[in-house]
Every structure is written in structure tokens, then in C-alpha cells.
Amino acid sequence: MVAKEWRDARWKFAVATILVLLLSTYLTPYSEIVATAEEIGGMTTGEGRDTTLPPPVAYNAERMALDEMWGFYNVGGLVALGSLVLGATLISGETGSGTISLLLSRPLSRTRILLTKYAVCAAVLLTAAVLGGVLILTVAALRGYPMDDVSYPGVLLLGLMMWLMSVFVLGVALLVSVFFCGAIPSLAVTALALLAFFTFPENVLNVISIVDYRILMNSQSWYEFFYRLAPGPYLIAPGVFEGDSPGAAKFLYWTIAAAVPLLAAVWIFRKKSY
Amino acid sequence: MADTRAEEAVSVPESAAIQVRDLVVNYGRKRAVDGLSMTVPRGSVYGFLGPNGAGKTSTIKTLMGFRKPNGGSAKVLGYDIVDESLEVRARVGFASEVNSLYEGMTVPRICRLCRDLSRSWDQDLVDRYIGVFSLPADGKIRKLSKGQKAQLQLCLALGSNPELLILDEPTSGLDPVARRAFLKVLVGEVAAEGRTVFFSTHLLSDIEAVADTVGIIKGGKLLVSGDLDDMRESHRVFRIAYAQTPPEDEIQNLRALDGVNEVEREGRGVRLRARGDVGRVERALGDRPHQIVDVDSTGMTLEYIFVAYVEDEDGR
Questions:
Q1: Which of B92, B100, B156 lies closest to A98 in CB terms?
Q2: What's the structural domain count of chain B?
Q3: Cα B148–B150–B151 angle (5° rounding)?
Q4: Which is higher by pLDDT, B146 or A133?
């Protein structure tokens, strides 16, 4: 079963790896960053200067390099996108093609079927996240970045967080794929579900305000509660490259976020009729 | 209100491969299987016959654990289909009308996958059946014809050396040549090895070709079940030739006889369809007030039997 799942996932993994390699060429050489920092430094003297940021932070070339590396960690977004593609077809693909009958007619528990599929994808994503992290550092070193400023534990934590976020996406995609038959509807609904999640609570509050804005005015406690659940504050910041810990709350948030759709998918898959 | 599963366990006779009692399966508000009770004897080739939408596939899916029953209970090879579903699936080979093969795989690769998914695997047996069907040993599955895919599914179902084969409309959509080849192997090889075969179909010719036992299902209910030869014997058509055209009261009296379920005028005579204790009907015909010159009795074809039960159920 693991071999079959790896076989199913490997071409997607190969495509993602190629994309990551292509993406790596977009990392700006450090010499250009220094030049840009000097240029900005020159421009920002006098009236145009941003006084809200201390100059050493605002115009520091090393800082800009770290930000650039952070931007390069769009690899994380790519991994999340990969997890969407991997997860959305896990069960719906089997249902759509009829091959689910082959799996369900064998002496395997549904939990095992689902978790095997999930585990293989999660392992693929972990490998992709690690490869992405290693690639960032390698390419950065090759392009002359001041690697002394990089916090390697920070990058490790970042990789782990990125992986947790991607398995959250994988879990949502898996949950949706249990409900749907065929890859396309499953992919579309997963994308919509994720969009709804990452724009929460503004999306909900906007809808409520359209219906009747007075509801919001009279529900201050709910308003605050929604914001406490919102994913925004728990997203990772570039500071991890400099050694900032992502924080226990963020880990807890994404661990729970990753576990909930997975557990829901297992529960529903066990009960679903085929 | 949702149905609850009957708590009473089904007691399975040693000779029963499948024992179903009061099985209920719903699709939302629609009842697909409505209190079905039946027994499939071990070693039999049981044809599960019914029109489209009769509840055959729903019954099979429930037996295989693809869905849980909304009521009643069932045991397969002595194992409860809900509580011991894994044990059931470890001992049952299953193939359906739907192509459940991974199109991108080759024959050896899907054999390896099924081996990995099964508790036991007899590759020699699979290879033998692949040879019997003359399937390409290394071919890509997507290049196989529909008939070959059905044959491969049967080979894979047999790979775990199952005591019981459950086949859901296995010949549906096959051309006559492929169907004949499939059924020939099913009865000539698989059943001959002593395995129980339970297969659903809406094709009477399939049943007549291979089944020794038959159950007819309609509207989720089992209408009749039993040995096919006995069924033919206990369902007879009498053609009665009278000396003179019988009056209407004679027709009414014939209709009132026990076991008679249809009487039609046929020229000067009468065609009478009877089931059950047909001997009693035969004796009653010897004692008619109107002169009978000839009685010709023939066993009903399965088609007649099937139509008779289905039409009775429809209230025709």
C-alpha cells in the first residue's frame, strides 16, 4: 500500500522539486542587495526618510538579505500547494475511478487505508520542506549571502512550521476528498475552504455586516472570539531566520489545525458508505 | 426515524456461506433493501437475480462492508458483517461490474498490490487463471479490453484463495463471447474447486448457465430462493385441452385452486401456471366437471418463473 501511494505521489513530488529548483534561481545575488540598500539609504536621507524605523534595521543590507531569503521561502507556499494537490485526490480519486472498491474489499481497516495515504503524503511534504530549506541555505551561500546572520535552528523551526501548515492543508484536502467523487470538484472545494480559512474572520464579519451591521455592534464578544481563532497572528514571520522562535502558541495552533481535519477525515471515512 | 441494527445475532448453520436476516439498507429516505432474509448454502453457485434497482448491489455492498446496514444482520462464513468485517473480507474474493483496477498499472504490479493488501496470496493460482483467460501477463491494464478487465478482476479476487466469491454483475457490459468465456471458467474451474460463488445479475441466461441455486429479489425483498432444478419442478405450466370451450365459472374455479397463480384462455383450452405443490394441481385437474381431452405439463423456464414473481410483486 505504501509503495502504491508513493507511486501515486512521486510524479507530483517530482514536479514540485523541479518548481523549487526553478524558484531557487530567483534569489537575488547579495551584491545586488547591498547595492539596493545603499541606494535606499541614499534616497532616504533627508525628507524622504522613514523615521518610524531605526536606520540600522530599516536599511541594513543583512536584514534585506534575510527578508529576501524569507521571500524565497515561497517554497513553503509551493509545498502547501503541493499538499492541496496531493490531498484532494487521495480518496476522491479512488472513488471517481472506482478503485476504492479494490481497497475496501481487502482486509484493511478504513483507518489504515486513510492514514497510510496521509502518512505517505505527509512524508513527501516533509521531504519537500527539508529540501526547500536546504536549497534556500545552499543557494543563499552560493550567492554570497552573509550566512553568519542566519539562525540555523530558526530555519529548522521554520521548516517544521511550514510542514505543519502544509499538513493542515493536506488534512483539509483529505477531508474534502472523503466527501467528493473525482479530483476536480475536490480540488475546487478544498481551494475554497482554504480561502475561507485564511481570510477568516473578515469574510464572516463582512457577510454579517452586509446582512445587518448592527449584529456586529451588539456582538463584541463574538467579534473578539473570531479574531482569536483567526490564522493571521499564527502565521510565521521572517524573524525566524534571525533566530526568533515561532512561539509555542503558533506550534500549538498549527498542530491542532493539522490534527482536526485529519481526525474528522478518519471519522467520516470510517462511517461513509460506498 | 433511523433504523437500528437488530441486536439478535444471526445463527449460521454450518452449511451456510451467507446468512442474512431482516436486512435493511437505506439511501437517504429511499429503502434499497427492505427486510431481506436469505441463506446461501456453502459450495453452491448462487445466482442473485433481480431487475435493475432491485437491491442486489446494495445487498452485496453491505455484505462486503462498503456500507453499514440500517437494520437486520448478516453473517458471511460465520463472521458478522459489521463487527467482523475484516475477517469477512479476508475470506471473501470480490469483483464488481465497476472497473476497480488501477489503469496505469501493469498486470504484475496490480498482483503485487493485491498481494500486499491481502492476508494470504496464491500467485500460482492467479497465474493459472491469467493463463486460463489468456490475459497478457505483462500488459498495461488500460490496454485490456472490458472483458479482459473483468477476467483480471476475477483472477485478483481468487488470489487470496477465498472460500467465497462475491461477484456483483460480473458479466455486465461484456459481449457474448467474453461473457461465455467468463462463465465457463466460473463454473468449470472456480466452482469445481468447491468454492461458494454468490453472484448478482439481471441476466437470466447467466443464471441458467452456471447457477445451481437462485434467489429472486425485487424491491429489496427476496421473492423466492432455492435450488434451480427444484424451482423449475415446482413451477409448471399446464396446457389443458377441453372437449368444449370451458365456461367462465370453470375458469374461475381453476383460478381458485391452491397453487394456481395464472389462468388464461388459449383457443378452446386453458393455459394454467402453477407453483408450489403442483402435484395437487395435477390431481385437481383430473377431477374437473368439464371434459378434458388432454393435459400437457411442462416445467417453467427461469424466465417464466422470474416474470411470474416480479409481476406478482408488481400486483399485475
A1: B100
A2: 2
A3: 60
A4: B146
Across the beta sheet with B45-49, the strand order is B92-96, B164-168, B196-201, B45-49, B213-218, B221-227
Residue B82 has a CB neighbour count (10 Å cut-off) of 14
Per-residue pLDDT at A163 exceeds 50: yes
Helix (H) or strand (E) holding B297: strand B292-299
Q: Is the domain of B134 the same as that of B180?
A: yes
**Domain membership flag for residue B219:** yes
Chain A CB within 8 Å of residue B103 CB: yes
Grid coordinates 445587518 are at which residue?
A212
Of A172, A176, A135, A183, the residue nearest A155 (C-alpha)? A135
DSSP B118-139: SSS--HHHHHHHHHHTT--TT-
Query: Averaged over A234-261, what is the pLDDT?
Result: 78
Judge whether B160 and B93 are in contact, CB under 8 Å: yes
Burial of A12 (0-12, 13-18, 19+ CB in 10 A): middle
Q: Whole-model pTM?
A: 0.81
Q: Specify whether B190 is located in the same domain as B277.
A: no
Confidence at residue B192, expressed as pLDDT on a 0 to 100 scale:
86
Please, which residues have CB within 8 angstroms of residue A140's CB and are 6 or more apart in sequence?
A27, A65, A69, A72, A147, A150
Contacts of A101 in chain B (CB under 8 A): 66, 94, 96, 98, 100
Looking at the fold, whether B275 and B238 belong to one and the same domain comes out as: yes
Range of the domain at B158: 15-225
> DSSP secondary-structure letter at A102?
H
ipTM higher than threshold 0.95: no
- What per-residue confidence (pLDDT) applies to B315? 57
